[in-house]
Write a structure and sequence with these properties.
The protein has 390 residues and is an alpha/beta fold. Helices cover 22% and strands 30% of the residues.
Length: 390
């Protein structure tokens, strides 16, 4: 019987290396494929080429495992689908999540299609998440389950996947702890065994985000305005889910100038570093940005009222269900656990679909809800769906 063919996305890191090894120990024909997504060396975090070292490591791992190895240049697709979108979002004052976008647009779309064209039955990655197949009304349904390593769980980054994509995907290390993955790599004497996890933009390598953004978003001096806590005194609390989900709108007259910056689009809600403003009793955090007027609004302390909101809104067009069979409809709230950023502990929340928008109401106020980021919701350890925060 012919073996099923699996093409592994080898990134040059330890996780995908061990994923490839585990598949060779099962009844699969395994091929390693490295994605080259970036050419511009002017924004790297070191003097090294951002992809050459990773490509070499992926090739060495393939040789060690005795599997074929190929590279594929996806830099044109990456620029069109990820880079241009990121610049547009930052310029509009939103903060996109490149890792979620990469998985949705590149790794599980462009890369998956290439793999299938090469005769693959599946693609595999080194993500810390798990997949389960269940039967619902005699139809195969795939559950996206959190990784067994709660610290490394990467299900959030896969929150935009579809059933068709999950059907063709394997996550060989999802049941392991990171320490176990490292141990396997050491025992095999893989070149990636002690390699640090990537700190750059997804699938690019050692790339500095600020330098990356300044390629197209030009510096422009503007004011940093501190909003005092007493600004909120006497303001009537929002009564509807729509008003609860809206962020506070500020004017420069609401606070005082405490410094200057080089472009509001370089800042995001909750940011503390990079403000270069001192002398306050508590640290300053970004509570809002106005890219039209080029103003950054800040508040003192991590519990500043301007950071906190109890609800968020998702445009109906931006709501995505991994489990279409479980999606809630207008007038039917659903109690879930949700997160608004990677590694945030899951929070109790209620999904409230309405005719004009989709709302997520948290039991407790959340800090730095940010437009352009993703909210993902779960039942137990299963990721059900997600949406782009409006």
């Amino acid at each position: 019987m012919k073996k099923k063919r699996v093409i592994v996305g080898l990134s040059g890191g330890v996780d995908s290396s061990v994923a490839a090894y585990l598949l060779t120990q099962q009844d699969y024909e395994v091929i390693g494929l490295f994605m080259k997504n970036w050419h511009d060396e002017s924004v790297t975090l070191s003097n090294e080429c951002p992809w050459l070292e990773d490509s070499n490591d992926a090739m060495l791992v393939s040789e060690k495992l005795g599997i074929p190895f190929q590279t594929v240049d996806l830099s044109a697709e990456y620029k069109e689908l990820i880079v241009d979108y990121m610049f547009d979002e930052y310029a509009a004052g939103r903060t996109p999540n490149p890792d979620v976008l990469c998985n949705r647009e590149i790794k599980f779309d462009v890369f998956l299609k290439i793999a299938l064209s090469l005769g693959a039955d599946y693609v595999a990655t080194g993500h810390y998440c798990q997949k389960e197949e269940v039967s619902v009304e005699n139809k195969s349904i795939y559950r996206l389950i959190s990784g067994a390593d709660s610290i490394k769980d990467q299900s959030y980054f896969l929150c935009q996947l579809t059933q068709d994509q999950l059907a063709k995907t394997l996550f060989p290390i999802g049941h392991l702890q990171k320490s176990e993955v490292r141990k396997i790599a050491r025992e095999l004497n893989l070149v990636t065994a002690e390699k640090k996890d990537s700190q750059g933009l997804c699938f690019i390598g050692k790339v500095s985000l600020p330098d990356f953004l300044q390629q197209q978003l030009q510096p422009k001096t503007g004011n940093i305005i501190e909003i005092p806590e007493d600004f909120y005194n006497g303001k009537e609390p929002p009564k509807t889910i729509a008003t609860q989900s809206q962020k506070t709108r500020y004017q420069t007259s609401d606070g005082k100038i405490v410094g200057t910056h080089l472009g509001a689009h370089f800042f995001t809600n909750g940011q503390r570093k990079g403000l270069a403003v001192g002398g306050t009793p508590e640290p300053l955090f970004v509570i809002d940005t106005d890219v039209v007027e080029n103003v950054v609004y800040v508040g003192q302390g991590k519990d500043h009222p301007g950071l906190l909101r109890q609800a968020l809104q998702v445009s109906l067009a931006d709501v995505h269900w991994v489990r279409e069979d479980l999606k809630t409809i207008q007038g039917e709230p659903m109690e879930v656990m949700a997160r608004i950023r990677y590694r945030q502990p899951l929070q109790k929340a209620t999904l409230i679909p309405q005719a004009d928008a989709f709302y997520v109401l948290f039991d407790q106020p959340q800090s730095a809800i940010t437009s352009g980021q993703f909210v993902a919701w779960y039942l137990d350890k299963e990721l059900l769906g997600s949406g782009v925060i409006a």
